[in-house]
User: Fold these one by one.
Assistant:
Number 1:
Amino acid sequence: MYALEAIEQTLKTKIAYELAHSFGPDGYLNPTHFKDPTKHQTTLTKFKEIVAKNRKLPFVAHHVAQYGGVMPIWVAIELFTSGCWRLFTRIYPGEVKVPLPSSLAPE
């Protein structure tokens, strides 16, 4: 189980880094950066539900109180569930390339 968590965390980190570099820290909120604006809205709706359910977590409470709930991608991605993650990767912009870490690359 630890190996899967490590892989998931590595992918989340890479995707957050590449999205932030390409579109800015809150660029994931802008539907024009993604393939399908309708699915983007569905993903954001699910994400907002996740934020509401986790509002007592210190980092969520901080971003809600200090920034009106707007989180940079590297914070937001920590709350993505597998369902949210799946939706997000389906609309992920094709021009953003996430390099596969050498430890995960096929030989």
Number 2:
Amino acid sequence: MVVLMFASPGCDRRKLKNATDANAADKTRLPSEFSATAESAKKEKEPDNPADAYLKAYLLVRESEKTTNREESIHRLQDACACFQAVKSKFPDWKPAMVDGRIAKTRESLDMLLPPGHH
């Protein structure tokens, strides 16, 4: 937040200094606000709910199907496979057949895009 202050004739310079000091105090709080934002972003990357984590991985697969860039598609499939693996390891009792099936399909898609020997 940027605050512009202009000293006009008749302006009390003490009030101006106090307002500037208050603005400086706000700046000292920014790092904690940013760290809270970074923490919430981290939580978004690692869902605590298996359905949310699965959906995130599934959407990565769908994105990989829509892109025309081969490298981008490979990257998204690799990320999706890692997410599915995380669901499997973090929530082993949550729909294991469905998760295993999706891992297999995602690996199959990767196999078609990656050159032999790059797994």
Number 3:
Amino acid sequence: MNTRVTVTIPENFALPAELMLASGFTAGSEMECVFEQGQICLRVPSARVSAARQLFGMGRHLSAGRDVVAELVTERASDG
């Protein structure tokens, strides 16, 4: 499928509805933009990549100021 889009303001353009439907993009979707050999490619990240990005660092606030590695080592040592 080939189509043209127009950049309306810097860093902004609209994807035609048929491309949105075909790609699975919805409002707020994350896409990967790659510039290769003079062409811009838009890619839909896999569901696993998107899920991993959302999970990355989620528990950091729970371990602030704690040495969780030392706690695990101590716990394993006491388990014998």
Number 4:
Amino acid sequence: MRPIHLVPALILTILTSVAFAHGVEVTAPDAKTAWAKGSRQKVRWQVAKVEQVHIELIQVATKKRLPVVKNLKNTGDFEWKVTADLEPGQYKILVISTKDEEVHGVSAVFEIR
């Protein structure tokens, strides 16, 4: 079997395609983020040709999905008051097109304290 040699530009193209495979890039929160319960925080994302989105919170340990907001106009950001009764731990934000659930994106894992 011969080794495969990939051109750096091809590798970059492949990685970029994987990163945007589902059409939504969630830019905030990022992996360095820690949100306090009860605080106001910005969720940010980028997606084209989507009119409305749903935003959900995913608890990493249990994979439980909690609704944050439904049928939100796609403006690319949303200020959310972090629910005071959440368990401290690791979470992700999921942004989903209201018309096509295949068009979605997930944030990096972040902390809620």
